[in-house]
Each structure stands twice: as structure tokens, then as C-alpha cells.
Amino acid sequence: MRLADFGDDFTWGVATAAYQIEGSPDADGKGPSIWDTFTHRRNWRGKTPIADGTTGDEATDSYRRYAEDIALIRDLGFSAYRFSLSWPRIQPTGSSRVNRAGLDHYRRVIEECLANGIEPWVTLYHWDLPQGLQDTGGWTNRETAHRFTDYAQIVGEALGDLVEHWMLFNEPLNIVISGHLVGNFAPGKRSLPAYFASLHHVNLATVWGSHALRSATSGADIGTTQYLTPPVGGGPGPLADLAARSADAVLNRAFVEPIIGRGYPWEEAGLLRGVRAYIRDGDLDEMTADLDFLGVQYYTRLRAPFLPIPGLWTVPQFGGGGADDAPTTSLGWEIMPEGLGMVLDAMHAYDHFPRLVVTEGGASFDDRVVDGRVHDPARIAYYSSHLAEVAAARERGVPVDGYFAWSLLDNFEWALGLVPRFGLVYTDYATQARIIKDSGYWFAEQLGGSARPG
Ligand code: IFM
Asked: Using CA atoms, how far apart are residues 32 and 157, in angstroms rounded to an integer?
């Protein structure tokens, strides 16, 4: 399989997210986000919630080095860059006041992309809620969905003349389950009411935000992304099947179906009935997002044990995983390329989304620099096998027309800190030097980029 076989209309991109790369947490009037707060939290033993104790205060310093990063994307041969806007750079407290300097920064990033022949694909929300909104309840407060709608309108009006491709949310599953139920992500809540409330409010914000963005822009290509997993059941015989179905409802369907007017799948997972306390009259009648595509993000499959709260222990940061003898990444995530084909088929089967785009896929390995090179054959094998699944899905008639590698460069991997390395480019955090890995050269050679090993 060669990347050229995907044809000229297929979009090849790399992805990043603001908190994971930008650093400069106070620059140009930015307000604090929940990730600034979370990573600086200490428990009574002085320990932070981040495995290696690091923060995103510097990360890859891309707030200042964005031109260097965009030049790398160009040299690697990619024609699209998916990055996220930091909401508190644009609205420091999340409400009303707009910080012109924040918008100007993103305008410069977008102009730099365009000057290098790279299409900007902009995500509105990749987890860094303004702390000011968290102080009034964050996603557990329905008002936050209204504030997000205002924010969508603001950025659509300010940047819509330059940006064509938009995504509203990155992986609501991690906002809701990791952030409000498991508590390993900001804001670090561990409560069922917080889980139910945030689930409904993020879904509402997706729908309302899509309409606001549509009305603020013209000719925009609007999508949203979902973390998707082909779930595996635990437990004996029929219980395994039951567990898999309820995990599918909790992990996948509860995020996809409410935003396409199908309501919550509580017949498969009784747990989800808890969300009813937050649904107001008329909510479900009006819940269809205005989307041109769905962003599919797939990393591994999650095993669902048959527990009173299905899905609770299946978040990858908590181990997850599939067959005991399956190959895994350095994080222990099972490498299962066929899962990508399965989730693409599942989303196509809704017969709702005009197009699918793989907006993230990638793997962390223990990369090392040896004589100035990073040899990462396992990552090349990972991309080859997953792209073969995309090609096969297209042959089956699934309308998937883009693939974004996660990530351009090694960056701050949330609760796991700086240790996991997902990049096509190695980051030397001591010097901020970028070193293209063999996987980056693999893409460059096939996509016609100029980067070649020196
Ligand atoms: O780094 C994350 C990204 O922010 C969201 N999707 C999964 C990636 C790898 O865990």
C-alpha cells in the first residue's frame, strides 16, 4: 500500500492540541485553564496528578516556535495541520471579554499555515476550559454550554475568513469520563452526578456550537471528533456479550447518538438513565448537530469488565487493553489495526455523516536518539497497518477522506506527562530541538515532502 494510492482528494495531516504544545501559560493576556490548575495541584504528600510531575508550562514551546513547527509540517509533506485554540487565550475567563491578542496569535498561526501551503484544521475545544468557567461548575453547569456557543460564534466571526475546516470538540469521552468520573484528567472530578451532567452539557454544546459556527461562517466544513473503541466484554459466556454491549453504549453511543437526534442508549446501559436528571423539556427534540463530517479517533480497543459501572475501568490511561498476548505500544495499549476498520464501519452504518475523517491515530514508543537519528520501525508498522484499514474501508464504500497522524511532535501527554512519545518528530525537552524520526521521513518520502535523513 502506497499513500499515493489514496488519490489527490485525500487529506494528509498531523495533529496537535494547544495545552500539549504551546507553553507560555500567561502570554498576551491568557487566563488560566483547568489544565493549568490541575497540573499545579499537590496532594498532602506534595504529589501532583501527573505521573512524572511535569506540566504544560513549557511543553514544546510552540506558542513561540509555531513557524518552525509549520515549516516541519511542510517539509514532511503534509498538506493539513489540525491544532486547537486555547479558549482562555481568546476569552480569559470564558465569558464575554474577548482578548484581541489571543485571536491575533491564532491569526498569525493560520496565516503561517496558508503561506506554507498547509490547510488549517481548527479544533475549538481540546480540554483546556477557562478556569473562570470551572469556578461556576464547569461542564456540570448547563451555562457552560451557552458560553461555548458564544465562543464558537466569536471564533467563527474572527477567523472564518481564513479557516475552512473546523472541529468543535476533541474526544468528549475524555472530557466526561476521564475528567468527571475517573478523575485522572482536569478538572479531576470523581462523581456520578458530575459524569451525567457533563455528558449532557458537552453533547448540548456540540449541537448548539455547530449551529453558532455555521451562522458565523460561510462555506465552512464543520465536524466534531470522537474517541471510538470496538469494545470487548469481560466475564463468562453471555455476560461478556452483555458487558460489550453496555460498554459500547457508555463509551461510544452516548457521545455519538445524542448529537444526531437519536437520544441516549439507556436501554443498553441502565447506568445512562442518570443523565435524565439534566435533560430539560425539548432538549432531545432539538439535538441534531449541523455537521459535514465526523472525526474518528482510534487508538486501541478497551476491555469492559462486567462491573456495576461498565466502562469505568476501561479508559486507556487506566490500563484498558485487549488480548493478553497482543502486541502493545509503550503504554500497554493493544495494537489492533482492524479496530479502526470496525469503528469506521460503525460510524458509516449510522447513515448520517456525509464524510468521515480520521482526525487522530498514532502510537507511543520508547524512542531514543542514536547518532542524531530516531529509528522507530514499530511506529512505521503501526501507520502502515492502520492506513491499510482505511484503504480497505474506502474500498467497502466508507466515505473516509482524510488521515491525521497524532502527533506532529512529542508533547505533553496529559496525566502521563512528558514521558510518552507520540510524535513523528522527537522533542528534546532540554533544548527544544526537533529531530525528525524515521516515521516522519517515511511520510515525507511518500507525500513528496523535502525532508530526508541527513
Ligand atoms: O494525546 C492525546 C490527544 O490529546 C487526544 N487523543 C489521544 C492522544 C493520545 O493519548
From this structure: 24
